[in-house]
Amino acid sequence: MSHEIEPRRSDAYSMTPFNFFEDFGRSFFDGFKANMIKTDIHENDSEYLVEAELPGIPKENIQVTYENGILTIAGQHQSDTTTEDKKGKLVRSERSLTSVRRQYLLENVKEDDIKASYSEGILKLTLPKDDHGKEPKKTIPIE
User: Fold this and answer.
1) Where is the SHSP domain (predicted)?
2) Chain segment 103-125, per-residue pLDDT in tens
């Protein structure tokens, strides 16, 4: 009995069930990663600090809203590409629009004091916490 390594085929004609489902799952879920905003959220006693990566999106195409305890970050980038031959004839013209949007639940924020800055593809937000309306924790004695 020989123990040969069989080359892995990832073409559409390879009907091995395990390879089919493995490849399908990988390609299906990889598509979702492209439109995700990579975000870091830090919390301390007085505020939330949010850093979101939005590379290639111009500042004027970014919208940030805070409503009912939900922070929403959205942006879009449009690109146009044309290719002409040596004679100036149009060979190819492509347009693409990329939109991203994420929402985060960050409650008890002073809405009027939220600050935002954008530099080199990084959106930084400071959301000060509002201690008004937040009841102190009540300790319940155990009998």
Assistant:
1) 27-143
2) 999 999 999 999 999 999 999 99
Question: What confidence score (pLDDT) does residue 31 get?
Answer: 47
Rounded CA-CA distance 117/120 in Å is 10
Sign of the C-alpha dihedral computed for residues 69, 44, 124 and 100 taken in this order:
negative
DSSP codes, 89-137: -EEEEEEEEEEEEEEEE--SB-GGG-EEEEETTEEEEEEEB--TT-PPP
**How far, in whole angstroms, is CA 136 from its chain's centroid?**
34
Class of domain 35-79+96-131: mainly beta
Give dist(CA 89, CA 138) in Å, integer: 75
